[in-house]
From TrEMBL:
<keyword id="KW-0812">Transmembrane</keyword>
<keyword id="KW-1003">Cell membrane</keyword>
<feature type="transmembrane region" description="Helical">
    <location>
        <begin position="79"/>
        <end position="99"/>
    </location>
</feature>
<protein>
    <submittedName>
        <fullName>Amino acid ABC transporter permease</fullName>
    </submittedName>
</protein>
<dbReference type="Pfam" id="PF00528">
    <property type="entry name" value="BPD_transp_1"/>
</dbReference>
<dbReference type="InterPro" id="IPR010065">
    <property type="entry name" value="AA_ABC_transptr_permease_3TM"/>
</dbReference>
<keyword id="KW-0472">Membrane</keyword>
<feature type="domain" description="ABC transmembrane type-1">
    <location>
        <begin position="15"/>
        <end position="203"/>
    </location>
</feature>
<feature type="transmembrane region" description="Helical">
    <location>
        <begin position="181"/>
        <end position="206"/>
    </location>
</feature>
<feature type="transmembrane region" description="Helical">
    <location>
        <begin position="21"/>
        <end position="41"/>
    </location>
</feature>
<comment type="similarity">
    <text>Belongs to the binding-protein-dependent transport system permease family. HisMQ subfamily.</text>
</comment>
<keyword id="KW-0813">Transport</keyword>
<dbReference type="InterPro" id="IPR000515">
    <property type="entry name" value="MetI-like"/>
</dbReference>
<dbReference type="InterPro" id="IPR043429">
    <property type="entry name" value="ArtM/GltK/GlnP/TcyL/YhdX-like"/>
</dbReference>
<keyword id="KW-1133">Transmembrane helix</keyword>
<feature type="transmembrane region" description="Helical">
    <location>
        <begin position="53"/>
        <end position="72"/>
    </location>
</feature>
<dbReference type="InterPro" id="IPR035906">
    <property type="entry name" value="MetI-like_sf"/>
</dbReference>
């Protein structure tokens, strides 16, 4: 317990950093993921192509490589932001590809006749998607989205290698202070466990309330 009690502020700062990364990156991933899913089922060929390229490239790019591309590449184009913002962009964009596929799978579970009925009433594609299709698709994709965001929380550990304050990075100063590396990682693992269990609990509530009975 000495490792935790004597360095509680350090652990707290790292824990808060991971929570912030997870929350902001999750919001970005959800927004982009839903948008890309809409692109992938859009009647416009160019939008479908863009969505397909987005998903294909990001799903097949190692996250560490994407971090390097964002952290080192964007400043070359004049975009200079705090490293934390760059980390949110990298995590959010990467995870959005997986969110997109989960949402698209949910869209495919909605009977085609409902979309046709909406269009026969004069609703546009945007109206049909937002008012008819997505609300039903959301009910079926709650579990996979929850799993994806749990993976995002664990993937945020990569940000520590790029000077971003997060939970895993606390082991470095603790090691320099001579604390047991084993116990340092034990409490880091406990921190990640708290975060992932919290996400699981949130999505369990969502699934009980809106999920499709199985």
């Amino acid at each position: 317990m000495d490792v935790l009690t004597q360095n509680f502020s350090l652990y707290g700062k790292g824990f808060l950093g991971t929570v912030q990364l997870t929350v902001y990156a999750s919001l970005l991933a959800l927004a982009l993921g839903i948008l890309m899913a809409a692109f992938r089922v859009a009647p416009v060929a160019s939008l479908r192509a863009f969505g397909t390229v987005w998903v294909t490239v990001l799903r097949n790019t190692p996250l560490t490589l994407l971090f390097f591309a964002v952290m080192l590449g964007l400043p070359r184009f004049g975009l200079v932001l705090p490293f934390t913002v760059f980390a949110v962009i990298a995590l959010g964009c990467y995870t959005s590809a997986f969110i997109c596929e989960a949402v698209r799978a949910g869209i495919n579970t909605v009977p085609v006749g409902q979309g046709e009925a909406a269009r026969s009433l004069g609703m546009t594609f945007d109206q049909t998607l937002s008012a008819v299709v997505l609300p039903q698709a959301f009910r079926t994709v709650i579990p996979p989205i929850g799993s994806t965001l749990i993976a995002l929380a664990k993937n945020s550990a990569i940000a520590g290698s790029f000077s971003v304050t997060e939970l895993l990075g606390t082991y470095k100063p603790l090691n320099e202070r001579g604390y047991s590396i084993v116990w340092s990682f034990v409490w880091i693992a406990v921190g990640y466990l708290i975060i992932t269990l919290a996400i699981s609990a949130i999505f369990a509530v969502l699934e009980r309330r809106w999920g499709v009975p199985r």
